[in-house]
Amino acid sequence: MTSVPVPIPSRTQFVQEAIKHRILTGQLTPGQPLVETELAESFGVSKTPVREALKTLAGTGLVVMSQFKGATVRTVDADMAREVYDVRLLLEPQALRRTVRGGAALDAAGEALARADGAADTAERSLANRDFHRALYLPCGNPLLGRLLDEVRDQAALVSAVAWAAEPSWHREAAEHREILRLALAGDADGAASALHAHIASFVERAFPQDRAGGEEGGRL
Hints:
mainly alpha
């Protein structure tokens, strides 16, 4: 019996993933112009798959499209960070609570933690941390909830990359990750969810502190 061939990713998908990887690993920095001709030459493709890839990435929030400036990597500021992390605060702890109560295996989360601990650079660590969080919420038993969190995880990774470039804090976050996983593996759904909530809330407050003079308390996470 012959095996079914695995579909080859389209050029657009290939370009999309390549651009996203460059953004999330800091090779393309926030605010940097994304010139179609330059990207097409870099990937050895025509401008069409590049243009389509940029439109898709704009839909995920990693790229901003402007009629006058063209495409640029999305910039990160306190307002953007709080919007993304507010969604995570609302959804991610509840998803983890359901994951633990459902008895889902968390091997992937442990593997991601190990990759983060052994990462050679910030980019590799950021991607591993991103996978760690996904491994906690994806088995929650609600595919829609998982997809909603998937929609913001790239933006969350971009926020982390920018914050770490200014002030590395991954050692503290790695310890928090280990505690979250310990509680989850122990079957403490509420404890794990509470630890995750505190982890998400504290990161954005450390990285993007509220302006005490001009900011309103209601803008805090």
